[in-house]
Amino acid sequence: MNRALAIGGFSPSHGRRPQAAGSAPGLLHPVATDSLSGALLSWPEQPGELRRQFESRQALAAELQRLFPEAEGSLSPIRGGRHQAEQLLGRIQPARYAKGRNFLDGPVTRLSPYIRHGALSLAEVRDAVFARLRSRTDGEKLINELGWRDYWQRLWQQLGGGIWRDQEELKTGHHPGAYSSELPADIAEGRTGLACMDGFIAELHSTGWLHNHARMWLAAYLVHWRRIRWQAGAQWFLRHLLDGDPASNNLSWQWVASSFSHKPYFFNRSNLERYSNGSYCRRCPLSEQGCPFDTSYEQLEAELFKPMPSLRANAALSRPSRRR
């Protein structure tokens, strides 16, 4: 456990029912405050609960260290609470988001931890987007992402624990048994030797957050290059992500793995360099020789996956023959 996660409660929701975009959770408008006392709760403190008020962030860190002496790291730099959520909500720029969201330094909202923990609802974010639109197209990308999050939650409500099982067969050509169920130590500890992957892992562990593109690259590396079952990666993310929940997390991993999509997601060095502005490749010891991503998509597809019959061919084979 990382102490950075303790304040955010980064774990599956343990029976919490997901909220839909149009719903109004009970903590939709908790009291905003600049102190560490948090929102005022309607029920009295109970023995054994974490104290609700701390005189400083350092005091909170010290209390968490006392309660979880085995935990590593420090508090996440991401500050929680309704007040911080409202500040970020006031800065969203839907048109800029649409143009630059895929870049690691792009204008993403960073609202996901606050949505995950109920400081903001999807409906509030949606309304804030609509209030800033000059044209309909300006907000399409951001509204689309909110829609996906709502869809994942509704699907989780329907599937329950089935969210941990493959929804479809893999489209990689490999049998599920070809994938390891254990997370390798070099990945868990961020010492793969690849500057990009180790950098993503370090950010995940120290902050509890990753840009969505970095999550996709890291997930694809685990599943397709290292042949790790997506469930192992999903569990690892849930232990560290401040915005982690089984709905968005697991179904996104399945999308990468191809057990909930029509093809596997993978990438090459050119894609990673473009959207990270080359910041990792410039300092990677494998940049000149040995980079596993430095080739064409066609070559990577041949290396990573086994040939599979096309969907159209499968459909044709399944149709009964017609006699004249």
Low-confidence stretches: 1-37, 311-324
Q: H/E element string?
A: HHHHHHHHHHHHHHH
Beta-strand proportion: under 5%
Helix segment tally: 15
Give the overall silhouette.
Answer: globular
The class by helix and strand makeup works out as mainly alpha
Q: End-to-end distance, in Å? A: 68 Å
Supply the key terms.
15 helices; 324 residues; mainly alpha
Write a structural description.
The chain has 324 residues and is mainly α. It contains 15 helices and no strands. The chain has helices at residues 3-6, 57-67, 82-89, 94-100, 112-116, 122-131, 140-159, 185-188, 195-207, 212-225, 230-240, 246-257, 269-275, 297-304, 311-318. α6 runs antiparallel to α7 (140-159) and α10 (212-225) packs across α12 (246-257). The longest helix has 20 residues, at 140-159. It is globular. It starts with a helix and ends in a 6-residue tail after the last helix. Mean pLDDT is 85; it is low at 1-37 and 311-324.
Per-chain topology:
Elements: H1 3-6, H2 57-67, H3 82-89, H4 94-100, H5 112-116, H6 122-131, H7 140-159, H8 185-188, H9 195-207, H10 212-225, H11 230-240, H12 246-257, H13 269-275, H14 297-304, H15 311-318
Helix pairs in contact: 6-7, 7-12, 10-12, 11-12
